[in-house]
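Just curious: can you write a single protein's sequence together with how it folds?
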Amino acid sequence: MSHSNPTLNPTGGAGDRRGLAQPALHEDLMEAVLSPANMKQAWRRVKSNRGAPGIDGLRIDDFPAYARDQWPAIRQSLNDGRYQPQPVRRVTIPKPDGGERALGIPTVVDRVIQQAIAQVMTPIFDPEFSESSYGFRPKRSAHGALKQVKADIQTGYRVAVDLDLAKFFDNVDHDILMARVAIRIGDKRLLALIGRYLRAGVLINDDIQPSELGTPQGGPLSPLLANILLDDLDRELEGRGHRFVRYADDLMVLVKSERAGQRVKASLTTYLGRQLKLPVNEKKSQVVKIDQCVFLGFTFKRGKLRWSDAAFADFKHRIRELTGRSWGVSMQYRFDKLGQYLRGWMGYFGISEYYRPIPELDEWLRRRVRMCYWKQWRLTRTKIGHLLALGVGKRTAILTGVSSKSYWHLSRSRATQVGMTNDWLKAQGLASIRDLWMKAHGYA
Protein backbone atom coordinates (compact mmCIF):
# COMPACT_ATOMS: atom_id res chain seq x y z
CA MET A 1 0.00 0.00 0.00
CA SER A 2 1.41 3.36 -0.96
CA HIS A 3 0.85 6.61 0.87
CA SER A 4 1.87 9.98 -0.48
CA ASN A 5 3.80 12.45 1.62
CA PRO A 6 1.52 15.19 2.93
CA THR A 7 2.20 18.45 1.11
CA LEU A 8 0.22 21.64 0.84
CA ASN A 9 -1.70 22.09 -2.38
CA PRO A 10 -2.23 25.49 -4.02
CA THR A 11 -5.59 25.91 -2.29
CA GLY A 12 -4.26 25.10 1.16
CA GLY A 13 -5.36 21.46 1.49
CA ALA A 14 -3.19 18.56 2.61
CA GLY A 15 -2.00 15.47 0.83
CA ASP A 16 -1.86 16.72 -2.78
CA ARG A 17 -0.32 13.99 -4.92
CA ARG A 18 0.76 16.58 -7.48
CA GLY A 19 2.80 18.53 -4.97
CA LEU A 20 2.72 22.29 -5.50
CA ALA A 21 2.28 22.21 -9.29
CA GLN A 22 -0.94 23.60 -10.71
CA PRO A 23 -3.02 20.90 -12.43
CA ALA A 24 -3.20 20.95 -16.21
CA LEU A 25 -6.36 22.62 -17.52
CA HIS A 26 -7.90 20.77 -20.45
CA GLU A 27 -9.66 22.95 -23.04
CA ASP A 28 -11.71 22.10 -26.16
CA LEU A 29 -12.76 18.67 -24.93
CA MET A 30 -16.18 18.65 -26.61
CA GLU A 31 -14.49 17.82 -29.91
CA ALA A 32 -12.95 14.73 -28.31
CA VAL A 33 -16.27 13.78 -26.68
CA LEU A 34 -18.15 14.06 -29.99
CA SER A 35 -15.52 12.44 -32.19
CA PRO A 36 -16.94 9.51 -34.22
CA ALA A 37 -14.49 7.02 -32.67
CA ASN A 38 -15.36 8.06 -29.10
CA MET A 39 -19.11 7.99 -29.76
CA LYS A 40 -18.91 4.55 -31.37
CA GLN A 41 -17.00 3.25 -28.37
CA ALA A 42 -19.58 4.81 -26.03
CA TRP A 43 -22.45 3.20 -27.92
CA ARG A 44 -20.76 -0.23 -27.82
CA ARG A 45 -20.34 0.09 -24.05
CA VAL A 46 -23.95 1.17 -23.45
CA LYS A 47 -25.22 -1.57 -25.76
CA SER A 48 -23.23 -4.25 -23.91
CA ASN A 49 -24.62 -3.09 -20.56
CA ARG A 50 -28.19 -3.28 -21.91
CA GLY A 51 -30.47 -1.67 -19.34
CA ALA A 52 -34.05 -0.42 -19.25
CA PRO A 53 -35.44 2.53 -21.25
CA GLY A 54 -35.53 6.03 -19.79
CA ILE A 55 -38.56 8.31 -19.66
CA ASP A 56 -38.86 8.43 -23.49
CA GLY A 57 -39.35 4.66 -23.73
CA LEU A 58 -36.57 4.27 -26.32
CA ARG A 59 -35.02 0.80 -26.03
CA ILE A 60 -31.42 -0.20 -26.67
CA ASP A 61 -32.41 -2.14 -29.80
CA ASP A 62 -34.22 0.89 -31.22
CA PHE A 63 -31.33 3.32 -30.75
CA PRO A 64 -29.39 2.72 -34.02
CA ALA A 65 -32.40 3.61 -36.20
CA TYR A 66 -33.21 6.59 -33.99
CA ALA A 67 -29.62 7.84 -34.08
CA ARG A 68 -29.44 7.67 -37.88
CA ASP A 69 -32.24 10.22 -38.08
CA GLN A 70 -31.65 12.33 -34.98
CA TRP A 71 -27.93 12.27 -34.18
CA PRO A 72 -26.85 15.11 -36.53
CA ALA A 73 -29.26 17.52 -34.79
CA ILE A 74 -28.30 16.24 -31.31
CA ARG A 75 -24.61 16.61 -32.14
CA GLN A 76 -25.13 20.16 -33.36
CA SER A 77 -27.03 21.11 -30.19
CA LEU A 78 -24.21 19.64 -28.08
CA ASN A 79 -21.68 21.66 -30.06
CA ASP A 80 -23.73 24.83 -29.67
CA GLY A 81 -24.33 24.33 -25.96
CA ARG A 82 -28.11 24.04 -26.46
CA TYR A 83 -28.58 20.36 -25.65
CA GLN A 84 -30.88 19.71 -22.69
CA PRO A 85 -30.72 16.24 -21.09
CA GLN A 86 -34.00 14.59 -20.22
CA PRO A 87 -34.91 13.82 -16.58
CA VAL A 88 -33.96 10.38 -15.29
CA ARG A 89 -36.55 7.76 -14.45
CA ARG A 90 -36.50 6.85 -10.75
CA VAL A 91 -36.56 3.17 -9.82
CA THR A 92 -35.71 1.44 -6.56
CA ILE A 93 -33.93 -1.84 -5.97
CA PRO A 94 -33.67 -3.77 -2.68
CA LYS A 95 -30.48 -3.43 -0.62
CA PRO A 96 -28.91 -6.36 1.26
CA ASP A 97 -29.65 -4.65 4.60
CA GLY A 98 -33.37 -4.58 3.85
CA GLY A 99 -33.63 -0.99 2.66
CA GLU A 100 -33.95 0.33 -0.88
CA ARG A 101 -31.47 2.00 -3.21
CA ALA A 102 -32.77 4.66 -5.59
CA LEU A 103 -31.49 4.52 -9.16
CA GLY A 104 -31.93 7.12 -11.87
CA ILE A 105 -32.26 5.62 -15.34
CA PRO A 106 -31.28 8.11 -18.08
CA THR A 107 -32.56 7.75 -21.63
CA VAL A 108 -30.42 5.67 -23.97
CA VAL A 109 -29.33 8.85 -25.77
CA ASP A 110 -28.19 10.43 -22.51
CA ARG A 111 -26.45 7.22 -21.45
CA VAL A 112 -24.42 7.25 -24.68
CA ILE A 113 -23.49 10.94 -24.25
CA GLN A 114 -22.58 10.43 -20.58
CA GLN A 115 -20.46 7.41 -21.48
CA ALA A 116 -18.66 9.47 -24.15
CA ILE A 117 -17.95 12.20 -21.58
CA ALA A 118 -16.68 9.64 -19.04
CA GLN A 119 -14.32 8.12 -21.63
CA VAL A 120 -12.68 11.49 -22.23
CA MET A 121 -12.56 12.60 -18.58
CA THR A 122 -11.36 9.33 -17.02
CA PRO A 123 -7.79 9.52 -18.44
CA ILE A 124 -7.58 13.09 -17.11
CA PHE A 125 -8.69 12.41 -13.55
CA ASP A 126 -8.05 8.73 -12.84
CA PRO A 127 -4.20 8.77 -12.83
CA GLU A 128 -4.30 11.27 -9.95
CA PHE A 129 -6.70 9.26 -7.80
CA SER A 130 -5.49 7.51 -4.66
CA GLU A 131 -4.02 4.03 -4.72
CA SER A 132 -6.50 3.26 -1.95
CA SER A 133 -9.52 4.06 -4.15
CA TYR A 134 -10.89 0.99 -5.94
CA GLY A 135 -14.47 1.68 -7.03
CA PHE A 136 -15.39 2.11 -10.72
CA ARG A 137 -11.83 2.57 -11.90
CA PRO A 138 -9.97 0.91 -14.80
CA LYS A 139 -8.16 -2.30 -13.78
CA ARG A 140 -9.40 -1.99 -10.17
CA SER A 141 -12.02 -3.95 -8.33
CA ALA A 142 -13.60 -4.79 -5.01
CA HIS A 143 -11.27 -7.78 -4.77
CA GLY A 144 -8.29 -5.43 -4.80
CA ALA A 145 -9.83 -3.41 -1.99
CA LEU A 146 -10.42 -6.53 0.08
CA LYS A 147 -6.85 -7.73 -0.45
CA GLN A 148 -5.54 -4.35 0.71
CA VAL A 149 -7.61 -4.58 3.89
CA LYS A 150 -6.25 -8.06 4.50
CA ALA A 151 -2.66 -6.83 4.04
CA ASP A 152 -3.19 -4.01 6.54
CA ILE A 153 -4.69 -6.42 9.07
CA GLN A 154 -1.58 -8.54 8.83
CA THR A 155 0.58 -5.52 9.76
CA GLY A 156 -1.35 -4.91 12.98
CA TYR A 157 -4.22 -2.62 11.95
CA ARG A 158 -7.12 -4.58 13.44
CA VAL A 159 -9.65 -1.89 14.36
CA ALA A 160 -11.99 -0.60 11.67
CA VAL A 161 -13.56 2.84 11.37
CA ASP A 162 -16.55 1.98 9.20
CA LEU A 163 -18.10 5.24 7.95
CA ASP A 164 -21.47 5.21 6.23
CA LEU A 165 -22.10 8.26 4.05
CA ALA A 166 -25.84 8.86 4.38
CA LYS A 167 -27.45 8.47 0.91
CA PHE A 168 -24.24 9.72 -0.67
CA PHE A 169 -25.42 9.85 -4.29
CA ASP A 170 -28.52 11.81 -3.21
CA ASN A 171 -26.57 14.37 -1.17
CA VAL A 172 -23.76 15.48 -3.48
CA ASP A 173 -23.55 19.28 -3.51
CA HIS A 174 -23.46 20.40 -7.16
CA ASP A 175 -21.40 23.54 -6.56
CA ILE A 176 -18.72 21.70 -4.59
CA LEU A 177 -18.57 18.92 -7.19
CA MET A 178 -18.40 21.28 -10.18
CA ALA A 179 -15.64 23.29 -8.49
CA ARG A 180 -13.57 20.07 -8.34
CA VAL A 181 -14.33 19.20 -11.96
CA ALA A 182 -13.37 22.72 -13.11
CA ILE A 183 -9.89 22.33 -11.58
CA ARG A 184 -8.99 20.07 -14.53
CA ILE A 185 -11.66 20.81 -17.14
CA GLY A 186 -11.50 24.20 -18.86
CA ASP A 187 -14.03 23.56 -21.64
CA LYS A 188 -17.02 25.71 -20.68
CA ARG A 189 -19.38 23.83 -22.98
CA LEU A 190 -18.51 20.54 -21.31
CA LEU A 191 -18.78 22.01 -17.81
CA ALA A 192 -22.18 23.47 -18.65
CA LEU A 193 -23.36 20.14 -20.08
CA ILE A 194 -22.28 18.24 -16.94
CA GLY A 195 -24.10 20.84 -14.85
CA ARG A 196 -27.26 20.32 -16.90
CA TYR A 197 -27.01 16.57 -16.34
CA LEU A 198 -26.82 17.15 -12.61
CA ARG A 199 -29.88 19.40 -12.69
CA ALA A 200 -31.92 17.44 -15.28
CA GLY A 201 -34.53 16.36 -12.75
CA VAL A 202 -36.11 13.06 -11.77
CA LEU A 203 -39.37 11.49 -12.89
CA ILE A 204 -41.06 9.94 -9.85
CA ASN A 205 -44.35 8.29 -10.76
CA ASP A 206 -45.79 10.95 -13.13
CA ASP A 207 -44.15 13.95 -11.50
CA ILE A 208 -40.87 15.52 -12.63
CA GLN A 209 -39.01 16.82 -9.59
CA PRO A 210 -35.97 19.11 -9.68
CA SER A 211 -32.58 17.67 -8.73
CA GLU A 212 -30.95 20.36 -6.60
CA LEU A 213 -28.62 17.85 -4.94
CA GLY A 214 -27.10 14.53 -5.91
CA THR A 215 -25.77 12.65 -8.90
CA PRO A 216 -28.21 9.79 -9.56
CA GLN A 217 -26.85 6.26 -9.56
CA GLY A 218 -27.60 4.60 -12.87
CA GLY A 219 -25.84 6.90 -15.33
CA PRO A 220 -22.35 6.15 -16.74
CA LEU A 221 -20.96 9.50 -15.59
CA SER A 222 -22.08 9.27 -11.97
CA PRO A 223 -19.31 6.93 -10.66
CA LEU A 224 -16.55 9.16 -12.06
CA LEU A 225 -18.13 12.29 -10.58
CA ALA A 226 -18.38 10.52 -7.21
CA ASN A 227 -14.68 9.63 -7.32
CA ILE A 228 -13.76 13.21 -8.27
CA LEU A 229 -15.62 14.58 -5.24
CA LEU A 230 -14.39 11.94 -2.79
CA ASP A 231 -10.80 12.33 -3.98
CA ASP A 232 -10.69 15.28 -1.55
CA LEU A 233 -11.43 12.83 1.26
CA ASP A 234 -8.71 10.46 0.02
CA ARG A 235 -6.18 13.28 0.00
CA GLU A 236 -7.16 14.25 3.53
CA LEU A 237 -6.71 10.68 4.74
CA GLU A 238 -3.35 10.34 2.99
CA GLY A 239 -2.23 13.67 4.43
CA ARG A 240 -2.98 12.33 7.91
CA GLY A 241 -1.06 9.13 7.16
CA HIS A 242 -4.06 6.81 7.63
CA ARG A 243 -4.46 3.30 6.29
CA PHE A 244 -7.75 3.24 4.43
CA VAL A 245 -9.67 1.65 1.58
CA ARG A 246 -12.48 3.26 -0.36
CA TYR A 247 -14.81 1.67 -2.89
CA ALA A 248 -17.10 4.42 -4.21
CA ASP A 249 -18.91 5.62 -1.06
CA ASP A 250 -17.91 2.59 1.04
CA LEU A 251 -15.05 3.70 3.28
CA MET A 252 -13.01 1.81 5.87
CA VAL A 253 -10.15 3.36 7.83
CA LEU A 254 -7.89 0.95 9.71
CA VAL A 255 -6.24 1.87 13.01
CA LYS A 256 -4.55 0.03 15.88
CA SER A 257 -6.80 0.92 18.80
CA GLU A 258 -10.42 1.73 19.53
CA ARG A 259 -9.44 5.06 21.08
CA ALA A 260 -7.66 6.09 17.89
CA GLY A 261 -10.67 4.89 15.91
CA GLN A 262 -13.09 7.07 17.85
CA ARG A 263 -10.88 10.12 17.26
CA VAL A 264 -10.68 9.37 13.54
CA LYS A 265 -14.43 8.82 13.28
CA ALA A 266 -15.21 12.14 14.99
CA SER A 267 -12.72 14.17 12.97
CA LEU A 268 -13.75 12.65 9.63
CA THR A 269 -17.42 13.22 10.37
CA THR A 270 -16.62 16.89 10.98
CA TYR A 271 -14.45 17.11 7.85
CA LEU A 272 -17.09 15.54 5.59
CA GLY A 273 -19.81 17.81 6.92
CA ARG A 274 -17.85 21.04 6.73
CA GLN A 275 -15.70 20.59 3.63
CA LEU A 276 -17.86 18.40 1.37
CA LYS A 277 -21.32 18.92 2.94
CA LEU A 278 -21.77 15.15 3.14
CA PRO A 279 -23.66 13.83 6.19
CA VAL A 280 -22.48 10.67 7.97
CA ASN A 281 -25.07 8.14 9.07
CA GLU A 282 -24.22 7.85 12.77
CA LYS A 283 -26.47 4.81 13.27
CA LYS A 284 -24.64 2.78 10.64
CA SER A 285 -21.12 4.14 11.27
CA GLN A 286 -19.04 2.32 13.86
CA VAL A 287 -15.62 1.65 15.36
CA VAL A 288 -15.19 -2.09 15.85
CA LYS A 289 -12.62 -4.85 15.81
CA ILE A 290 -12.03 -5.93 12.26
CA ASP A 291 -13.65 -9.36 12.73
CA GLN A 292 -16.93 -7.62 13.64
CA CYS A 293 -17.01 -5.50 10.49
CA VAL A 294 -18.61 -6.23 7.10
CA PHE A 295 -17.00 -4.60 4.06
CA LEU A 296 -18.16 -5.13 0.48
CA GLY A 297 -20.05 -8.25 1.52
CA PHE A 298 -17.13 -9.87 3.39
CA THR A 299 -15.93 -10.30 6.93
CA PHE A 300 -12.36 -10.84 8.15
CA LYS A 301 -12.18 -13.73 10.60
CA ARG A 302 -8.66 -14.24 12.00
CA GLY A 303 -7.39 -12.22 9.06
CA LYS A 304 -9.09 -14.50 6.52
CA LEU A 305 -11.74 -13.45 4.03
CA ARG A 306 -15.23 -14.89 4.46
CA TRP A 307 -18.51 -13.94 2.88
CA SER A 308 -20.80 -12.22 5.34
CA ASP A 309 -23.81 -13.87 6.95
CA ALA A 310 -26.12 -11.53 5.04
CA ALA A 311 -24.48 -12.37 1.71
CA PHE A 312 -24.73 -16.08 2.50
CA ALA A 313 -28.40 -15.75 3.44
CA ASP A 314 -29.11 -13.94 0.16
CA PHE A 315 -27.27 -16.69 -1.72
CA LYS A 316 -29.31 -19.49 -0.13
CA HIS A 317 -32.55 -17.58 -0.68
CA ARG A 318 -31.81 -17.23 -4.40
CA ILE A 319 -30.84 -20.90 -4.70
CA ARG A 320 -34.15 -21.86 -3.08
CA GLU A 321 -35.94 -19.76 -5.70
CA LEU A 322 -34.03 -21.35 -8.58
CA THR A 323 -34.65 -24.86 -7.20
CA GLY A 324 -38.27 -24.31 -6.18
CA ARG A 325 -40.18 -27.47 -7.02
CA SER A 326 -43.24 -25.50 -8.18
CA TRP A 327 -41.30 -23.46 -10.75
CA GLY A 328 -42.79 -24.75 -14.01
CA VAL A 329 -39.73 -24.71 -16.25
CA SER A 330 -37.66 -27.39 -17.94
CA MET A 331 -34.71 -28.82 -16.04
CA GLN A 332 -32.38 -27.58 -18.79
CA TYR A 333 -33.62 -24.02 -18.34
CA ARG A 334 -33.28 -24.40 -14.56
CA PHE A 335 -29.70 -25.64 -14.91
CA ASP A 336 -28.86 -22.73 -17.22
CA LYS A 337 -30.19 -20.18 -14.72
CA LEU A 338 -28.50 -21.94 -11.81
CA GLY A 339 -25.21 -22.00 -13.68
CA GLN A 340 -25.41 -18.31 -14.51
CA TYR A 341 -26.16 -17.38 -10.92
CA LEU A 342 -23.57 -19.69 -9.36
CA ARG A 343 -20.80 -18.56 -11.71
CA GLY A 344 -21.63 -14.90 -11.04
CA TRP A 345 -21.86 -15.35 -7.27
CA MET A 346 -18.73 -17.44 -6.98
CA GLY A 347 -16.91 -15.10 -9.36
CA TYR A 348 -17.24 -12.48 -6.63
CA PHE A 349 -17.61 -14.37 -3.34
CA GLY A 350 -15.44 -17.30 -4.40
CA ILE A 351 -12.35 -15.53 -3.05
CA SER A 352 -13.62 -16.44 0.42
CA GLU A 353 -10.93 -18.43 2.20
CA TYR A 354 -13.49 -20.38 4.23
CA TYR A 355 -13.82 -23.81 2.56
CA ARG A 356 -15.69 -25.67 5.28
CA PRO A 357 -19.28 -24.97 4.11
CA ILE A 358 -18.56 -25.65 0.42
CA PRO A 359 -19.07 -29.47 0.31
CA GLU A 360 -22.23 -29.16 2.42
CA LEU A 361 -23.58 -26.50 0.05
CA ASP A 362 -23.01 -28.77 -2.93
CA GLU A 363 -24.80 -31.62 -1.15
CA TRP A 364 -27.74 -29.32 -0.32
CA LEU A 365 -27.94 -28.08 -3.91
CA ARG A 366 -27.95 -31.61 -5.33
CA ARG A 367 -30.68 -32.65 -2.92
CA ARG A 368 -32.86 -29.73 -3.98
CA VAL A 369 -32.35 -30.62 -7.65
CA ARG A 370 -33.29 -34.26 -6.97
CA MET A 371 -36.45 -32.93 -5.31
CA CYS A 372 -37.23 -30.96 -8.50
CA TYR A 373 -36.84 -34.07 -10.65
CA TRP A 374 -39.05 -36.06 -8.29
CA LYS A 375 -41.79 -33.43 -8.48
CA GLN A 376 -41.45 -33.14 -12.25
CA TRP A 377 -41.86 -36.90 -12.75
CA ARG A 378 -45.23 -36.63 -10.93
CA LEU A 379 -46.97 -39.94 -11.73
CA THR A 380 -46.03 -43.07 -9.81
CA ARG A 381 -45.36 -45.12 -12.95
CA THR A 382 -43.18 -42.29 -14.33
CA LYS A 383 -41.12 -42.16 -11.14
CA ILE A 384 -40.63 -45.93 -11.10
CA GLY A 385 -39.75 -45.94 -14.80
CA HIS A 386 -37.09 -43.27 -14.40
CA LEU A 387 -35.58 -44.97 -11.35
CA LEU A 388 -35.40 -48.30 -13.18
CA ALA A 389 -33.78 -46.61 -16.20
CA LEU A 390 -31.21 -45.06 -13.87
CA GLY A 391 -30.21 -48.49 -12.52
CA VAL A 392 -32.20 -48.64 -9.29
CA GLY A 393 -33.31 -52.12 -8.25
CA LYS A 394 -36.93 -53.00 -9.04
CA ARG A 395 -38.10 -53.46 -5.43
CA THR A 396 -36.45 -50.23 -4.26
CA ALA A 397 -37.80 -48.32 -7.26
CA ILE A 398 -41.37 -49.51 -6.64
CA LEU A 399 -41.33 -48.87 -2.89
CA THR A 400 -39.96 -45.38 -3.44
CA GLY A 401 -42.27 -44.60 -6.33
CA VAL A 402 -45.43 -45.46 -4.37
CA SER A 403 -44.29 -43.70 -1.19
CA SER A 404 -46.47 -40.87 0.08
CA LYS A 405 -43.61 -39.18 1.90
CA SER A 406 -42.71 -35.57 1.00
CA TYR A 407 -40.68 -34.60 -2.02
CA TRP A 408 -37.97 -33.23 0.26
CA HIS A 409 -37.82 -36.43 2.30
CA LEU A 410 -37.60 -38.66 -0.77
CA SER A 411 -34.95 -36.47 -2.38
CA ARG A 412 -32.55 -38.02 0.13
CA SER A 413 -33.77 -41.58 -0.19
CA ARG A 414 -31.50 -44.40 -1.27
CA ALA A 415 -33.34 -44.74 -4.58
CA THR A 416 -33.03 -41.09 -5.67
CA GLN A 417 -29.36 -40.92 -4.67
CA VAL A 418 -28.44 -44.24 -6.30
CA GLY A 419 -30.34 -43.28 -9.45
CA MET A 420 -29.55 -39.57 -9.67
CA THR A 421 -25.88 -39.82 -8.79
CA ASN A 422 -23.59 -36.83 -8.47
CA ASP A 423 -22.01 -37.69 -11.82
CA TRP A 424 -25.43 -38.04 -13.47
CA LEU A 425 -26.53 -34.64 -12.20
CA LYS A 426 -23.28 -33.11 -13.46
CA ALA A 427 -23.87 -34.70 -16.87
CA GLN A 428 -27.34 -33.11 -16.97
CA GLY A 429 -25.73 -29.69 -16.56
CA LEU A 430 -25.72 -29.02 -12.81
CA ALA A 431 -22.82 -26.74 -11.83
CA SER A 432 -20.67 -27.65 -8.82
CA ILE A 433 -20.12 -25.03 -6.12
CA ARG A 434 -16.95 -26.82 -5.06
CA ASP A 435 -15.53 -26.82 -8.60
CA LEU A 436 -16.24 -23.11 -8.94
CA TRP A 437 -14.61 -22.38 -5.56
CA MET A 438 -11.55 -24.43 -6.50
CA LYS A 439 -11.29 -22.60 -9.82
CA ALA A 440 -11.49 -19.24 -8.03
CA HIS A 441 -8.49 -20.29 -5.92
CA GLY A 442 -6.46 -21.59 -8.86
CA TYR A 443 -6.86 -25.30 -8.09
CA ALA A 444 -8.60 -26.20 -11.33
